[in-house]
Specification:
The chain is of the alpha+beta class and 143 residues long. It has a four-stranded antiparallel sheet with strand order 3-1-2-4, with helices on both faces. Helix 1 runs antiparallel to helix 3.
């Protein structure tokens, strides 16, 4: 079934879409946190500051590939906790005592993106370059 969400996820996966995913809070709106994407978190924070009273502060920000798809998935996960707000990005605010779970999810994705995937790619490249030696070792055993 083709849905708007599936189209957004597929559109996000067709290009690298390397942007920041961030979690912001505001001193005036306790227990409400914004999950969003931006090319510049500081510019986004200033844009939100112009539409909301209180001080808007950054809790987490990291650059990700496929940022739009990751952000949409997080929004879907936290949709039951949606906290409608006024101003810029009003549908991206969520009720949370502490934004620990989205921060942990994003931190784990960051580790996968920048540590595990490069190690995996390096291992594949090593295997490809040394495939004759590895085939010989597998066939004849270690000397």
């Amino acid at each position: 079934m083709v849905t708007r969400r599936n189209i957004i996820l597929l559109r996000g996966l067709t290009r690298l879409d390397y942007r920041y995913i961030y979690i912001l809070g505001n001193t005036r709106y306790l227990f409400r946190y914004k999950i969003g994407i931006a090319k510049s978190v500081e510019n986004r924070r200033k844009g939100i500051k112009s539409t909301l009273n209180g001080y808007t502060y950054e809790i987490f920000a990291a650059r990700f590939f496929f940022a739009e798809s990751i952000e949409q998935t997080l929004h879907d996960i936290y949709r039951p906790l949606n906290a409608r707000m006024k101003g810029s990005g009003k549908t991206e605010w969520f009720w949370m005592v502490l934004p620990i779970s989205p921060t942990l999810v994003l931190s784990a994705l960051w580790v996968i993106q920048w540590i595990f995937i490069p190690i995996f790619i390096s291992a594949l490249a090593y295997i490809f370059v040394n495939r004759d030696i590895l085939i010989e070792i597998l066939r004849d055993g270690l000397p």
